[in-house]
Design a protein that fits this description.
One of its GO terms (cellular component) is Sec61 translocon complex. This protein has 88 residues and is mainly α. The chain has 4 helices and no strands. The protein folds into 2 domains: 40 residues; 46 residues.
Amino acid sequence: MAEGDNRSTNLLAAETASLEEQLQGWGEVMLMTDKVLRWERAWFPPAIMVTFLLLLPGLNQHGIISKYIGMGKREINKLLKQKEKKNE
């Protein structure tokens, strides 16, 4: 019984070490993302806007922007219908 537990523990340790190794590179990305989201630097907001504007043509080409605009319109229409029902 102890031998099975030992193998299980060793397997779990190996899987954990492998996962840790795979995720190690994402540490830098997460730190930078955190800094951007907290706007720790004055140039982050303009840099985000310029980056977003550069992505717009590609997003529009794949229909992503149209999809989300359509979703937004549907939600607004739902809310307006609910409001009308409430007022009746």
